[in-house]
Design goal:
Distance between the termini: 45 Å
Strand content: 5-15%
Oligomer: single chain
Strand order of the largest sheet: 2-3-4-1-5-6
Radius of gyration: 21 Å
Helix content: 40-55%
Bound molecules: zinc ion
Number of helices: 13
Largest sheet: 6 strands, parallel
CATH superfamily of the largest domain: P-loop containing nucleotide triphosphate hydrolases
Length: 303
């Protein structure tokens, strides 16, 4: 059994009040473990998957009346119909009923279309939890309705993949554990003005830095930006260098002249570290000064 301790992610997810989630990664068992533990935290009387309350005990013994788990090699329309019938009933033990579909890529296309309607028009007392190792087997219409949680500790490859596959579609992605990586929320940069303003500020900031002595003035001169998404945007910019995409046009080309791939590969984890500090409520400007100092250091060391 894998120890799952990311209560903060659960809290964060619950705050978002989504009614449909997809837990995904290449590790089927990890997906399942994280998803089921999340379900436990949803039904737990203490909201934490405490393992001690009667709800957790019922969950563990697979007798919780409001938790429905579907796991089979092929999921067809009939199976989805059963879920829909159950959706129309009221929860028994608590205020929500949870429908879990493990390895949701086994749902055939007709059944996915049938399921889509329930996911699109949720009722307030039901939550869907899906897992998969193959997001490409899910219909885009379904995918777009799910709050996606990447399970595990994404390596650089995973991040690039995710940046590639999802960032451009502007969907929400969360990471598990939440302190390990960025891109926590949507990277819907093209349509969200907070993102585009913050991106502009970051490029101006990076271009204003020639030596570490410039940091205080450059930081003071920063125009409008959103602190909550600053590091996410910063990392996305650097990931775009590694990724060699054309997301930021000329500005990115200009940045590529300043930062080699090697420098960027050192910078991306530095931003992760900064993000952890931000979550731990360390002063933002303190984090930023430190981070910029280290970014510049990498720039000059990895020429
Ligand atoms: Zn409990």
């Amino acid at each position: 059994m894998i120890a799952i301790t990311s209560t903060s992610l659960y809290k964060q997810l619950k705050l978002n009040k989504h009614h449909a989630y997809l837990f995904f990664s290449s590790d089927k068992f990890l997906n399942e473990a994280v998803a089921l533990n999340f379900v436990k935290s949803l039904v737990c009387a203490n909201g934490t998957a405490c393992n001690n309350c009667p709800m957790c005990k019922q969950f563990e013994s697979s007798t919780h009346p409001d938790v429905n788990i579907l796991k089979q090699n092929s999921i067809k329309v009939d199976d989805v119909s059963k879920i829909i019938n159950k959706l129309n009933t009221k929860p028994i033990a608590g205020e929500i009923q949870v429908f879990v579909i493990l390895d949701a890529d086994t749902i055939n296309e007709t059944a996915q279309n049938k399921l889509l309607k329930s996911i699109e028009e949720p009722n307030n007392s039901s939550i869907f939890i899906l897992t998969t190792t193959k997001t490409d087997k899910l219909l885009p219409t379904i995918l777009s309705r799910l709050n996606k949680v990447f399970v595990g500790q994404p390596n650089k490859q995973d991040k690039l993949h995710i940046a590639n596959e999802y960032a451009k579609t502007g969907v929400d992605i969360n990471f598990y554990p939440d302190t390990d990586c960025l891109l926590t929320e949507a990277i819907n940069m093209s349509t969200n003005s907070a993102y585009s303003t913050t991106i502009d500020t970051i490029f101006n900031l990076l271009f204003a830095l020639s030596t570490t002595a410039d940091i205080p003035r450059a930081v003071d001169g920063m125009e409008e930006f959103d602190k909550n998404i600053f590091l996410t945007c910063l990392q996305d910019i650097f990931l775009s260098i590694l990724n060699n995409n054309n997301k930021y046009g000329d500005r990115l080309n200009q940045l590529k002249m300043m930062y080699t791939n090697k420098a960027v590969s050192h910078i991306v984890p530095l931003i992760d570290e900064a993000y952890k500090k931000q979550i731990a409520n360390v002063n933002f400007y303190f984090i930023l000064d430190n981070l910029l100092f280290n970014i510049l250091k990498e720039r000059f060391l990895c020429k």
